[in-house]
Each structure stands twice: as structure tokens, then as C-alpha cells.
Amino acid sequence: MHAVIIAGGSGSRFWPKSRENLPKQLLSIVGQKTMIQNTVGRITPVIPVENMWVITNEQHAFETCYQLKDFGFSPSQLLTEPVARNTSAAIGYSAKILSQSNPDAIMAIFPADHVINTTEPFLKLLKQAETIANENHLVTLGIKPTSPETGYGYIKQGKIIKENYFKVDRFIEKPDKLTAEKYLKEGRYYWNSGIFVWKVSALLNEISLYLPKLHEQLEELAFNTAPIKGKYPYQTLSASGKKVFHSLESISIDHGVMEKSNKVIVLPADIEWNDVGTWTSLAAISKNDSHRNVISGNVVSIDNSDSIIQADNRLVAALGLKNIILIDTPDALLVCAKERAQDIKKVVEKIKSDKRPEVSTTISETRPWGSYTVLQKETNYLVKRIEVLPGESLSLQSHDHRSEHWTVVSGVAQVQIGETSQTLNANQFVEIPKGAKHRLANMNETPLIIIEVQLGDKLDEDDITRYEDKYGRDE
Amino acid sequence: MHAVIIAGGSGSRFWPKSRENLPKQLLSIVGQKTMIQNTVGRITPVIPVENMWVITNEQHAFETCYQLKDFGFSPSQLLTEPVARNTSAAIGYSAKILSQSNPDAIMAIFPADHVINTTEPFLKLLKQAETIANENHLVTLGIKPTSPETGYGYIKQGKIIKENYFKVDRFIEKPDKLTAEKYLKEGRYYWNSGIFVWKVSALLNEISLYLPKLHEQLEELAFNTAPIKGKYPYQTLSASGKKVFHSLESISIDHGVMEKSNKVIVLPADIEWNDVGTWTSLAAISKNDSHRNVISGNVVSIDNSDSIIQADNRLVAALGLKNIILIDTPDALLVCAKERAQDIKKVVEKIKSDKRPEVSTTISETRPWGSYTVLQKETNYLVKRIEVLPGESLSLQSHDHRSEHWTVVSGVAQVQIGETSQTLNANQFVEIPKGAKHRLANMNETPLIIIEVQLGDKLDEDDITRYEDKYGRDE
């Protein structure tokens, strides 16, 4: 069995922790690991990592490779989209790529950012779904509802096929409360989980029937796909491939295929699934205190109830709150009435229309070589903490508008300026003059940390000319 | 007329904006200026600055001098307490010092951290109070109540003396709501403002009658008071004077003298006074928006009402809040139900008992030479922004546990290391080795800003040996 993990989050509903540059699947919303790490880890007992594929927006490619490195995930099995075009595009493209080497493989689709609390029954169902899919059915996992949720789509079961799975009678859009209660009572309705299992050829055949234009375009996409040159050779589309992708119809696989096909099977699943759709979901999937709060981080809490409070480094003091969501991050804070959690996207829209950076980036950004954190930004200077991972190096580069001053605080730095190289230990300093070609590298086995002071008349990430880059970012 | 401004705030009710190191009077709670600046500025039309005295805790001496510098306030008229011992001690001590040069001066007492919105009638009343005080009365300003406040003490008027002032019938502790409503209706009750006017000799005479032990101790305090050596020669107590101050009884001037003396006069005042006792006071003294919010700083506000939201640099997004107080600072955040504003001191007590630094300091601290801000603190390094004011210099000092790396980002630095001095401009760097005697000075007319990276095994403010200090901190 092969897996395709759909990592297409846009990062608005979990703002300010999620950003455009850091969507939900790349965050540890619950527990230590990120959601995509949990998604991969959960299925490894039944799907070997060499059969796993991930599809994500290209801006998240390096971070995704980095987060999945310890699983042995190969960057060459990371497919990238230049833009989001809904699940028909992402799934169709993945299926097409997979069909080149394994046209009759069984392919399971998993959203990268959902929670499943009971792994064993889930894996058992996957194995069963594999068997059913082998008979050219399109299998969808239907979650047994535990409450009258109005935030999910539903699937109504049709006639029974075998003891525990059914033809699908119909797919249903998010219902109102009364209807959801009726569904819960009747018992033949399931939440649409977005988890599917099918044979690659069976899916592509249905796409050719119901989305013929997409089927044609997939050919072009596959032809225009190649790994980038560099340390993490993930798959990318050529310029013309990207153009095709942009032109794809934005339609969900449910609307595009599942609702039309007569090969669809629903396999009911009782697996404590949650799509973690808003901050309020945390109350359902996290440990609550005796006043039904979910509190984490550096918090002084007095007399609060039914609230979600997430602190970062800063001290957060909360007093007498009820039904409040409070999410603190170094550069942005959200405080919101719980009943308004669905409207956090309004906040994000407002911030976006105000062209504020907090919609897309945080003060800490990851790069293929490590990460940096902006400690202070003023008009004439900028202070950064830069961490270079063992064995990694920044590109050979220069800046037109700034000089840089580096003080090594931890680890060992290899610094090239012009044609000369030097080694700097902790407590040593170097200046990079404006315009000088330079490169910073960490050849040691411990992280390298430097404090950088930039001075200049224009201090932004765009003032960079790259001459060489081991991650292919100079192309 | 002389003024004594009582600047004794402890910084708990306006936490996290106020701290032990930065109490309310030193903050700009409303408008641009700090509360003590407003207090001084308000009375300058009737009391010349050379007749103004301020009494404050010694830890706030330099900052108080700095804030009052532009008024021409002389540091030699700043009295300092080693510890808070309530208003009898502070007022008695000030009166005693004043009596040495002006035994029969008229002395007006002003709390440093109250708001008065109608200055002209207030100043007129002060002039009248001066006249009444000349007849050896102790005059207290009684504020005409505008609501049934339970947070203030009250004064009941006795028999009329002249058309607009009265003997005091009695002083009354904070009443309950029903009693306060009765007072408001009856109309012969006033809020106890803590503003007093009397002849120095008259007050000292009443102290000798009702607080005879204090009267005796004041002699010792005065004898042990002298200006410090240095650029800001504020008055300080010698070690034995401090010991005496510690032993003073902690009692308010109301309990100690006013309730007992038969010379007390209440002068009713209709002057839009507010003691700014909690964050909720802001709603009364600030501009509200159409949903009764008081919002300032970098805030995205959607559908909030009856809330107080103060942001700092960070983006604060508030959505659907009602009756919430949200105060954001770089290192600590408070979010609190409005009705619980009185309990913020519980938060402060908790933080104090947890020995967290946020109870006393912020990441930005002022010093007589300027200020610094901690940008990042880790176990092995610390990054600071240091600003040295024009003409100022840090002490000649050394550190046993750390080296320091300075990059000048603005202004011109005079740097002495050992016996050699050098001038550094923006974009220049210097290292101060561990153990080296060094000094940083700004001889220019623009502020000097440097980024400092400290490295060492112990990074705290106590690791400093001072050899010379222009502010007398080496004594």
C-alpha cells in the first residue's frame, strides 16, 4: 500500500500560531510532534516510508523535508504545488505520478493535519480498505459521529456489501444543528474524514470519466515534473508545468469524483478522529483541568474556566476568564471569545488587507540550513539570532544595502569572505562589509549559533544575491 | 507655598505595565507624560519648581530626577525612603526637612499619581487653602462625589467656617455600596483625596501631640540626611538614618493626625479628580470608542465592547470580547475580567511568591546614564540594546564572568579599555575581554545606541565591579 499525505493547509484558522509560511500541519498543536509527523508516524506500521508521498505548497517544501527527515522520508517523494487548487488537483496529480511507477498500486489518502487517537483499529481498517480497494472500489472512511457536528460533511450509507461496509447512498454538505441531531440519532450517517483508499488506476479511470479535462492536464503535469538540484531534491513543476497547475479547476475530490462515481464504498470507522478545525477543538482532544481549561506554557491562571490559554515564552496572567481563547506568540497575540472561533479568519483577512507581516511570517523563520529569529528591527539596524544546523551552510551571497556583524555565541563557524576562509569559535567576531561575497557554514556536529547585527539603509530578506546554494535556491 | 509630592507607589495594581522598579507615578497611564510629570506640571502656575519637593523610594530616585529634569527640578529636593512606612512617615520626614529652612512655610501635599482634569479651579482652591492654612488650620481637599464609590475613604463636613469650607465632622473608611449611595444623596460627604495644605510648623505641632514617637525620630532622620555625591545629588539617609526609618510606625496621616486633630478643615473641591486606582479607572478618564472600549497601540479590534485593550509593539488581535482588560507588555501579558480588576494584586502576589522577575523589572530598565533592553537571554549568552544619553557615561567597571561584544549602531561611542581610549562610530565593533576594566561614554549630542552580546557562565546584573561612577553608585 502507498500513502499520499495531503499537506495543503493555508494557516488561517490557527492564527497566530499558524501563518501562511507555517500552516497547521507543520505545527505541534497537540503534544510534542507536529501534525504531519504524527500523520506519518501513525501509518508507518502498515505503510513503509519508501511508499509514502507528500504533496504540499512549494513554499513549505524544505520545512516538510526537514520535519520528516528522521522517518527516512525521501525528498524525491515530496510533490509540490505552486498554488492551492483543492483536493481533485492534489490527489489527481499524486495519482498520476504514482501511476508512472506503480499503475496498480493501492493508494491511501490522508489529510496531514487531523488527529486520530486510536491507532490500532485505524490501522486494521486501513488493511481492510486495501482489500476492498483491490476490487476496484473507491473506499472512503466514514467516521461514526459522537456529537451532532455542524462543521463536517456527512456520508449516508447505502446497501450493505459485506458485514461492516456499505455502498454510499449520498454525500451531504455541512448540515444545520437539527439535521445533524437527526443524523446522529438515525445512525446511518458518517462524518466525511477525507481519508480514502483506492487503486491508482481505478481513481484515474474515474477522473477520466468525471473530470476529463483534469485527466488530460495531469499528463502535462507529470511530464513537467522533476526533482530540484540540491541537497533536498523534492519534485517541482517546470515553469510551464506551474502554468498548467494554475489553470486547473479548483474542485474537491468529493464533488469532482466521489459524489458521481458508483464505485464508492463507505467503511465505518470508530477511531476518535478529529479534524482540528478551530482552536476550540483543543478542548476535545487535549487534557482539560478541573475547570475545563486547556492551558499550556508560562501561564499564571487564577479563576478561569472553559478557556484555552496557550503561552509562549512570555508570562501570561489570566484572571477570571470564561470561554476565552488566548493564544500568545512572540509577535502576535489573539484573545477571542470562544463562540467566535470560526471568525478568526476575519481577523486574518483584516491583517492581510492591512498588509501586516504577521499574516505570513513569524519572527522565527526556518530555512533549509537552519533558522533565524529577529530579535529587534529598527529602521537603521536589525538584530538576528541565526542557527545553522550541523553540516549545513548558507548560500554564497552578497548584500547591496547592508553590512553584517557576526558574534559566534555557540558552536564553530566557517566563514568565507571574498576568497579567504576562517574558522570562528564562540566569543569571536567578524564583520561582513556591504557588497562582499560571503558564506556561513557549520562543519561541526553541534549547532552553530551567531548573533548578527545588520546595518544599512534597506534591511529586508530580498536584498540578497546568491552565487551558489547547496539547496538549489540560486536557480 | 511649597509642595511635597508623595511618590510612594508600589506598582502592583497596574501590573504588568507597572512593576516594583516602575510604579504608577513613573508611567504614562493617560496621555504622553508620566503621572508625576503631570502632577508637577499642573501646580507650576502657583508653586515655583524651586519650592517643590518629592519623596520617593530610593530605588526610583534617578528615574524621578530624570523625569523631572526638564521642569528644572533640583535633585537636592528629592527625599528618599529606604522602605515604605505610609504617609505619616513620608509627610513627617518632608515637613521636618522643610522646617530646617522654612519653619513657617505653607506646605501642600500631593499624591504623585492622581488625575485632576480641571486645573484652573484646582489652582484657585490651592490658593484659598494657602490662606486658610496661614491661620494654622490643617486643610484637606474634599472631592465632591459624582458616584457612590466604594473604593475611597470619605470625609463628613462639620460646621461651616466660611462660605465654602467646613470643620471636619469625621473621617470615614471605605463604605459599602448602600452607605456610599446614602452619602452621595445627602451631599455633605466628600472623597478623601490625600491632598493637604498646612503650615509646616502647624503640622509638626500636631505630630508632636498625636505621634510623639515619630516626632522624636524625625529629628534623627533630618540629622542623618545628606545629598549623595554624583551628578544627581538627591537626598539620602545614612545607614543609621535608614535604620531609624525602618523602625518608624507604619500609619497613614489620616489615622495618625487628621482624625485626631481639631484643626482640620475640609475645603470642598469639584475638580474631576480620580485616583486612578485600577485599570478600570481608564474607562472614566480616557476617550472611549462607540462600544465603550478604551483601545491603544497596535490592536486589531473586531466586535469588542466595554473593554480596555493596551497593546505595545506586538500585534494584538481581539475578537468578540466584553468587559475584558487586556494589557500587553514585551515580557508579560494580563488578560482579566473587568469585574476582577481589584484582584490583579493577587496575580502580582502569585508572581512574587513564584520569584518571577516580572514582578519587579521589565526587559527595559532605566539607569542614570540611559537605558537598556534585553533582546534575548539564554544560559550562555545575552543580547542587549544599550542606549547612552548625550553627555552621560557608564561607570568604570569590570566583570568576572563575562566578555562583552559591542557593535555601535547609532551615535558615537567613547570606549575605554584598560588605559587606552578609542572612538567608535556606527558600524564599528569592539570586544571587552572578561576581567578588563572598561567604560562606555557618549560625549556627543545625539543618543548612542550599541548592541551588546554578553558571553559567559554567569550573566546577571550583579556581576559588576565599579571603580568610578559619576552618579555615586560606587559608594
Task: Summarize the structure in words.
Two copies of one chain form a homodimer. The first copy, chain A, is of the alpha+beta class and 475 residues long. Chain A has three domains: 2-274, Spore Coat Polysaccharide Biosynthesis Protein SpsA, Chain A; 281-353, no CATH class; 364-468, Jelly Rolls (Sandwich). Chain A is built from eleven helices and 30 strands. In chain A, the strands form eight sheets. In chain A, strands 20-21-22-29-24-27 form a six-stranded antiparallel beta sheet, with no helix packed on it. In chain A, a hairpin with a 3-residue loop joins strand 18 and strand 19 (332-337). In chain A, helix 3 packs across helix 6 and helix 3 crosses helix 7 (212-223). The model of chain A has no long low-confidence stretch (mean pLDDT 96). At the A-B interface, strand 17, strand 18, strand 19, helix 11 and strand 21 of A face strand 17, strand 18, strand 19, helix 11 and strand 21 of B. Strand 17 of chain A pairs parallel with strand 19 (332-337) of chain B.
Q: Beta-sheet strand percentage of chain A? A: 25-35%
The coarse silhouette of chain A is: globular
User: Strand order across the biggest sheet of chain A?
Assistant: 20-21-22-29-24-27
Number of separate strands of chain A:
30
The CATH class of the largest domain in chain A: Alpha Beta
Number of helices of chain A: 11
CATH superfamily label of the largest domain in chain A: Spore Coat Polysaccharide Biosynthesis Protein SpsA, Chain A
